[in-house]
Design brief:
about 525 residues; Rossmann fold; 8-stranded mixed sheet; globular
């Protein structure tokens, strides 16, 4: 399996996927197959190469890299290649990435040989002016079905004749590979559509460059690359990702632990605070927290193993396992002591880590820990977690969209009746799109950390707290009623209060969010709760 990593540019980051061993081969994966899939497939077919495949600017983990023309986009790729130490290596570019590859020398990065794959397909799309239909997020989620159809048809249909299937070419992708590309393209669907148009327009009438070679299929690529391998040095290890010069800017990173590779969002400098997400998506909704708390401390928000962009090991998951993962993460980052912040599932992970390893934890903010009746937990475990699996027609996309949407309409989401209506309101389509993409990134593993929260004995753990803790919840939180029971269970020295907002929920008032983050900061700084261990307001 390919390994993802980030390279930090001046004001953005680019994600790359590395696989294999041997001399360097840089790959621009094209616009219909994910870089992760390309890297894996090429590494299997080319055992003598270290394959480095880029998420193209505006897509996947390179979404923050953007320019408004081919030259600017190529400049970003050239910058990243230079920072990764990829000098004097061959370049393999697929389908519509050819114009980007041809623009790299003018941007300051010159390959030692350019190989174009699937050029005939790109020419066919250009000839009939194939472009994605509008991909701006829609309230009904159907833009995801449009994108899926565009990607699937690009693989299946004759490039110059969309009324017939192509009888030759690479094997057709399965649902999992199509899903990987959809998630790459859909991080910012409007940017993906613009990238497609930039490349398509540049391809028209563009003359070939001296020294470029064309090949189709893995056999053709292997044959063309074989003579280029002789005499080349093996690839050097990639440099680690680094933060931006502005310490308050959020940057992405990975950390290797004995349990798997964990994706991180990071910001700030100072005393470390590990921030744990709610299930089932990624830590992306915690960005308001990172922005609000970063001044004066370092915030590290991981995606759980099995969720978001972290590895997805096959294993049994409970809150104890997730807490062990987070302790392993702290060890990998060299953190001897740290504070904790967690919400919902994350509150239980923080709680479990605190009660089992109090010597490592300074203070812990536990937002809306799960405190519901046993029969309600059983009902949730029976009905809340239908399987989500990539489907050949993309049917899973609307399933995920409507699950996420209904989570804002009803509590629990599957109880679609008037009495279960929530007052929080459905966010706009762009926000709901981001939340849905987090769920899709977790794939078939999405329910494991989620189920763990409803199986955990929160009550038994709360009474074991020995470190200073703040238990809180905002008024819109469906678990806010648990504060009353938390006051009866929490030991002396624990602060239990309502907060003005749930900062990671969309649609919360700006002042309420600021005030809530102020509560977190005051507690973490030791200025809240010392005089009154159980204040009620």
């Amino acid at each position: 399996m390919s390994t993802p990593l980030y390279v930090t540019l001046a004001d953005s980051q680019m994600r790359v996927w590395r696989s294999g061993s041997g001399p360097d081969l840089l790959v621009l994966p094209g616009l219909i197959e994910a870089a992760s899939v390309r890297a894996d497939r090429l590494a299997q077919a080319l055992p003598g190469w270290t394959v480095t495949a880029f998420d193209l600017p505006g897509t996947g983990g390179s979404v923050t890299c953007w320019a408004e023309d081919i030259a600017g986009l190529a400049g970003l790729i050239a910058d990243a290649a230079g920072r990764l130490g990829l000098t004097g290596c061959p370049l393999l570019a697929f389908d519509l990435a050819a114009p980007l590859a041809r623009a790299l020398p003018a941007a300051g990065w010159r390959p030692d040989g350019l190989l174009l794959a699937d050029a005939a397909a790109a020419a066919g799309w250009s000839g009939r002016d194939l472009r994605p239909a509008p991909l701006t997020p829609r309230a009904d989620g159907t833009h995801l079905a449009v994108l899926w159809a565009h990607l699937r048809d690009a693989h299946i249909l004759e490039p110059s004749d969309p009324s017939h299937p192509a009888a030759t070419g690479a094997p057709l992708p399965g649902p999992a590979d199509l899903d990987a590309m959809l998630r790459t393209a859909a991080v910012a669907p409007d940017r993906y559509a613009a990238l497609w148009s930039f490349c398509l327009d540049a391809l028209r009438g563009e003359p070939g460059e001296d020294g470029e070679v064309r090949a189709d299929g893995l056999e053709g690529i292997t044959r063309r690359l074989a003579p280029m391998a002789a005499g080349r040095r093996d690839a050097a290890p990639p440099p680690p990702a680094r933060p931006f010069a502005d310490p308050l800017r959020v940057w992405h990173d990975y950390a290797d632990t004995p349990h798997g590779r964990i994706h991180l969002r990071r910001a700030g400098r100072g005393r470390p605070l590990l921030a744990f997400q709610s299930a089932p998506g990624s830590s992306a909704p915690l960005l308001p927290l990172l922005h609000g708390l970063a001044p004066g401390r370092e915030i590290i928000a991981p995606d759980y193993l099995g969720n978001g962009e972290s590895d997805k090991p096959e294993r049994t998951v409970d809150i104890g396992a997730l807490a062990d993962d987070m302790l392993a993460l702290a060890d990998a980052l060299g953190l001897d002591e740290f504070d904790l912040w967690g919400t919902h599932t994350g509150a239980l992970v923080a709680l479990d880590l605190t009660v089992r390893h109090p010597e490592r934890v300074g203070r812990a903010v536990l937002e809306a820990p799960v405190l519901i009746a046993a029969d309600f937990s059983a009902d949730i475990l029976d009905h809340y977690f239908p399987p989500i699996a990539a489907d050949r027609w993309g049917l899973h996309l609307l399933q995920a969209w409507n699950m996420r949407r209904d989570m804002f309409l009803f509590w629990p989401w599957y109880r679609q009746e008037r009495a279960a209506a929530r007052a929080i309101g459905v966010p706009d389509a762009a926000v709901l799109h981001d939340w849905t993409m987090g769920l899709l990134a977790s794939g078939g593993h999405y329910d494991r950390s989620y189920r763990a929260a409803f199986r955990y004995d929160t009550r038994a753990a709360l009474v074991r707290l020995t470190r200073p803790a703040l238990i809180c919840a905002g008024p819109a939180d469906m678990l806010v009623e648990g504060l009353a029971e938390a006051r009866t269970l929490a030991p002396a020295g624990t602060t239990v209060i309502p907060t003005p907002a749930t900062v990671w929920y969309p649609g919360q008032g700006a002042q309420a969010v600021r005030d809530t983050i102020g509560c977190y900061a005051a507690f973490l700084d030791g200025a809240l709760g010392a005089a009154n261990p159980h204040p009620v307001s």
